[in-house]
Write a structure and sequence with these properties.
Number of domains: 3
Oligomer: single chain
Bound molecules: coenzyme A
CATH superfamily of the largest domain: Gcn5-related N-acetyltransferase (GNAT)
Largest sheet: 7 strands, mixed
CATH class of the largest domain: Alpha Beta
Distance between the termini: 34 Å
Helix content: 10-25%
CATH topology of the largest domain: Aminopeptidase
Number of strands: 19
CATH architecture of the largest domain: 3-Layer(aba) Sandwich
Shape: globular
Strand order of the largest sheet: 1-2-3-4-5-14-6
Order of helices and strands: EHHEEEHEEEEHEEEHEHEEHEEEEHHEH
Low-confidence stretches: 25-40
Length: about 425
């Protein structure tokens, strides 16, 4: 038996794409009232698995995409495993961007599972990402028990909340000098890139969009979910500084009737943010508002006269992070508090150059991260460091769970003060 783990050749891309339908089950059924799944809609429209023609189209598109890096497992010439990384830029604490390998489209066909093929593909993808000077990898995990062993750990959250319209009163605020406009898909496609660029410059965790990110926006009806509608906010100079995509889906039950679903909302400043929400939470002929993919620290809560009116109905991890190159990743972000920290990593089997004791130093001029012979303030697992990288997770909780072992008084406090970010990191879309 000859096993190869390598990028597929262009003529092998169709076979590569056939792995996923044979790895994944059919989409799991979920009652509409549960109203949750991984996407941005309140519940997924029923979509059949991709047909052969669609797989060919995907293969063709990916062959021509320089940011898409597929890897496959071949056993005696047959493609049995597939995964890929997409080269992204992600906003790091401080507002700079870090190159990141986004792991996606992972599957091993049912007859070849548990033989170590995913592990080998993951190693190949990490090595290739390091060659491309991408110090970070990220992914969204279909199951929480698979990816920790490769060093991935949750880095951001995603929250779904509901608000009853009759409870959704806003606290008074200064008058808005800007304007709101309901627009069609053509104008929404123009507004989204500008608004997202402004937002991601100051929101940690946001991704630079791939080309064509908003091409799919349309005015067409999507089954019973109805058409997507677009609300744009413009500042006093007429520049778009906020936008929301929302729907008013048909409902099979009285309970869910009159629900306005906010599938996406981004605003570059608090005036635009408040203006968009103030219209959406008080839309005539609606009863409730549902927002499925929101940041955990949604400021709208604090704008309500009754903060408890916003009911969180689901919260889950969103993107997971994996530091591939510790000194490069850590010197490409800034720190809330300047200081010095020495830490030991001794558990990275896939990127062994990360193991050792590191001295992280930050001051007004620079951030440095270099090997040191000094005693470590703490020992931290690679996955815990990955969770802390974007500043949204708690060092105290990770230490309580044994991922961080402090060796010096105050070490944990120092780690917290240096790494935390506020607002929390958030990904308004994944990959
Ligand atoms: C998940 C999947 C990609 C794993 O591939 P695989 O080749 O079987 O994985 P490996 O044999 O390399 O296993 C690597 C490790 O992960 C573990 N593992 C694999 N799948 C797992 C699962 N579903 N749950 C928990 N652990 C899992 C293995 O036990 C092994 O552990 P070890 O290193 O401690 O021995 C494959 O089973 C699959 O395609 N499943 C269905 C589709 C899917 O879930 N894809 C994920 C999309 S994000």
């Amino acid at each position: 038996m000859v096993t190869q783990v390598r990028p597929p050749r262009p003529d092998e891309m169709s076979a590569y794409y056939r792995v996923l339908p044979f790895a994944n089950g059919l989409p799991s059924w979920e009652p509409e009232n549960a109203a949750w799944h991984g996407g941005s809609e309140p519940w997924p429209p029923q979509r059949p698995p991709a047909n052969t023609q669609r797989l060919e189209q995907l293969a063709e598109a990916d062959i021509n995409d320089a940011s898409f890096h597929p890897v496959a497992t071949f056993v005696d010439g047959m493609c049995v495993g597939a995964s890929a990384t997409i080269s992204f830029a992600v906003t790091a604490p401080g507002g700079g961007t870090v190159r990141m390998a986004g792991v996606t489209a992972t599957g091993v066909i049912a007859t070849h599972r548990r033989r170590g093929y995913l592990r080998r593909m993951m190693q190949a993808m990490f090595d290739a990402a390091l060659d491309r000077r991408e110090p970070l990898a990220m992914l969204s995990a279909s199951e929480g028990s698979i990816y920790g062993r490769f060093g991935f750990s949750p880095a951001t959250y995603r929250t779904r909340w509901e608000l009853a319209r009759h409870e959704a009163a806003l606290r008074p605020a200064e008058p808005d000098p800007g304007t709101l406009e309901l627009v069609g898909a053509t104008q929404a496609k123009q507004a989204w890139p500008k608004v997202h660029a402004d937002v991601r410059a100051c929101r940690v965790g946001e991704l630079a969009p791939l080309p064509g990110r908003w091409d799919g926006l349309s005015d067409d009806t999507d089954g019973t979910n109805g058409p997507l509608r677009y609300l744009v906010h413009r500042d006093r100079h007429g520049e778009a500084d906020g936008i929301a995509n929302f729907r008013l889906p048909w409902s099979p039950t009285e309970d869910n009737a009159g629900t306005l679903v906010v599938e996406a909302l981004e605003a570059a400043n608090s005036t635009a943010y408040r203006a968009l929400w103030s219209l959406l939470i008080d839309f005539d002929l609606t009863k409730s508002i549902v927002a499925p993919g929101r940041p955990r620290d949604e400021p709208l809560r604090w704008m309500l006269t009754n903060p408890r009116a916003m009911r969180v109905t689901r919260q889950t991890d969103n993107l997971w992070a994996r530091v591939l190159d510790v000194p490069t990743a850590l010197t490409q972000r800034t720190y809330l508090k300047h200081g010095e920290l020495t830490f030991t990593i001794d558990d990275d089997q896939m990127c062994p150059a990360n193991n050792g004791t590191w001295h992280l130093g930050t001051d007004e001029a620079a951030v440095t991260c270099v090997p040191t012979d000094k005693a470590a303030d703490l020992t931290i697992t690679l996955s815990a460091l990955s969770s802390l990288y974007f500043g949204g997770m708690s060092a105290q909780q990770l230490a309580c769970a044994g991922h961080i072992v402090p060796h010096a008084d105050g070490a944990l406090g120092k780690l917290t003060q240096m790494f935390r970010t506020d607002p929390e990191p958030h990904n308004s879309f994944g990959f």
